[in-house]
Amino acid sequence: MGLAEVYFKYQTGCFMATYSTNEFKSGLKVMIDGYPGAIVENEFVKPGKGQAFNRVKIRNLKTGRIIERTFKSGDTIEAADVVDAEMQYLYNDGEFWHFMNSETFEQLGADAAAIGDNTKWLKEQDVCIVTLWNGVPINVEPPHTVTLKIVETDPGLKGDTSGGGGKPATLETGAVVRVPLFVQSGETIKVNTRTGEYISRV
Amino acid sequence: MKSDASGDWRPSATLEVLKLRARMLERIRAFFSARDVLEVDTPALSSAATPDPALASLVTRYTGPGAPHGQALYLHTSPEFPMKRLLAAGSGSIYQICKVFRNGEAGRSHNPEFTMLEWYRVEMDHHRLMDEVADLVLHTLAGQPALQPPEKLSYREIFERRVGIDPHTATASDCAQAARAHGVAIPADLFEHHDVAIWRDLLLSHLIEPNLGQGRLTFVHDYPASQASLAQIRPGHPPLAERFELYLNGMELANGFHELADVAEQRTRFERQLHARITSKLPPVPLDQRLLAALTQGLPDCSGVALGIDRLVMLAAGARTIQDVVTFPIERA
To answer: Do B209 and A47 touch (CB under 8 A)?
Structure first.
């Protein structure tokens, strides 16, 4: 492809960045079935005297589903313009969840599809990882652990300090987690957002 | 390549594995010494290269006495051609343990340079050589891991058993259908390929190979004539290549031939392969005229086999990757 052709394709929006199978490695962001994915595993297979293939596992960046795909070695695949940005959660206006890049102060709104279930972990000023595809948020990862206030839980039995058993507690963001019986309404607790489990009182 | 201070100056294999590797090489040499097979050492650099489109040679340049303007030299992908020249010169049965080089091959069971054991047995056909390969592998593994008795299966049998097609008569679309039926995620552009060889390789590498040689040495033989490489072709319906491969626990370990001695046929195959390289836009390579001259002189009836030492060590050590059994893989070279 000559320079003029590159320029023409760029101007007309037909230009696509691509990766060859030799560039495959875990973490690489590629387009798969029209949606961005990240390579999780790349295996080179080749019969001694035959065609080489790359057997690849790709994680769909929205659904998290792993897809398996085989490519003929040397083939190319479309690159996905995907970046992970650290952004501070600001507020929700009823339709969009607004985030700010703490370095550039640029603000973006993520829709309900991008937030998914994670809305229950979002607390103002917490720093999240926002995945942007062509500049648009497609996924939001809350911090691994968040500190949230309990707004409602049954008064537990006095003297129970074992942490066994437990009871449900509703947090300020609406999330419901199991907490030990000694933890009370109004207290602030630390929660693992990946497992949804109580870690400790703060 | 990488500049992070992650300790990648260190070997990727443990000392324990390196000791195992050294013991295995000792056993291999003892095996051949007891059978009166001569150890030889042929050059890694050659003015010619294999035209096989499935193999990519690394190329370097020599400049100096005899080559004032520089001369391209190819690193061998196997020591086959010079070893056959030795055979034609009357060496008798010979073996070699050497590094070989293949461009484009890196992964869990591939490193672009790897250690190969190659040997030739005069007046042996490929079936007798398969038996000797089994003896050597069992001798070298020394009971680690414990294995069932070896088996021999034809190329047709392994396809019929696993994917239910006859590889000698199946069309590209039969293969495509079988691949889809077994859940292989096929790249879109493969649909455009009507070359049945690619489809057979897809089925072989994805569905068949991983199940071959489970707990035993499995020899696959009687390949399609189109995959004869440097093996003799036995006339028949269909004609079959007197070629074999050895698998253990799903891994390809060795590839052998009842060697082609007919110089006219060898020249034709070279030219066909060279043509295939050009149509596939692969770089052309100089053909080995000295090999052809040796075949004209006369290659004794013989069979030869190449065995990947690193993979054999992987199996003995229970290692998952080739990086676990070599000192410094390409990432650390």
So the answer is: yes
> Picking from A173-182, B25-34, B285-294, which range would have the lowest pLDDT averaged per residue?
A173-182
Cβ separation of A53 and B185 shorter than 8 Å? Answer: no
Examine the fold and report which residue of A78, A106, A121 is the final residue of a domain before the chain moves on. A78
Q: How many domains does chain A have?
A: 3
Q: Determine the longest span between alpha carbons in chain A, in angstroms.
A: 78
Distance CA B325, CA B329 (A): 9
Using the structure block, give the residue that is written with the tokens 């102060």: A105
Q: Are A49 and B54 inside 8 Å of each other by CB?
A: yes
Inter-chain contact B205–A69, Cβ cutoff 8 Å? no
- Domain architecture of chain B: domains with CATH: 15-147+259-332 (3.30.930.10)
Residues A61 and A44 in one domain: yes
Enclosing H/E stretch for A75 = none
Helical segments of B224-326, H only: 263-279, 289-297, 309-317
pLDDT tens for B240-263 read 999 999 999 999 999 999 999 999
From A33's Cα to the closest Cα of chain B, the distance in A is 11
Q: What is the pLDDT along chain A (202 residues), one digit of tens a residue?
A: 455 555 555 555 556 799 999 999 999 999 998 999 999 999 999 987 888 999 999 999 888 899 999 998 988 999 999 999 999 999 999 999 999 998 899 999 999 989 988 999 999 999 999 999 999 999 999 999 999 999 999 886 655 555 567 899 999 999 999 999 889 999 999 999 999 999 999 8
C-alpha A80, offset from chain centre = 15
CA–CA–CA angle A45, B11, B30 (5° rounding): 80
Cα separation, A175 vs A193, whole angstroms:
10
Of chain B, the percentage scoring pLDDT greater than 90 comes to 89
Element housing B197 (H / E): helix B196-203
Determine the Cα–Cα distance for residues B186 and B190; give it in Å rounded to an integer: 7
What is the model's pTM? 0.83
What's the complex ipTM?
0.85
Cα distances from A200 to residues A121, A125, A180, A183, B58, in angstroms, run: 16, 21, 9, 9, 59
DSSP per residue over A89-108, as a string?
A: EEEE-SS-EEEEETTT--EE
Contacts of B255 in chain A (CB under 8 A): 48-49
Residue B82, φ and ψ in degrees, nearest 5: -65, -30
CB proximity A157 to B under 8 Å: no
CATH of residue A108: 2.40.50.140
Interface of B with A (CB under 8 A): 52, 54-55, 104-108, 110, 184-187, 189-190, 197-198, 200-202, 204-206, 209, 227, 229, 245, 252, 255
Domain span including residue A194: 145-201
B61-88: pLDDT as tens digits: 999 999 999 999 999 999 999 999 999 9
B187/A75 CB distance under 8 A: yes
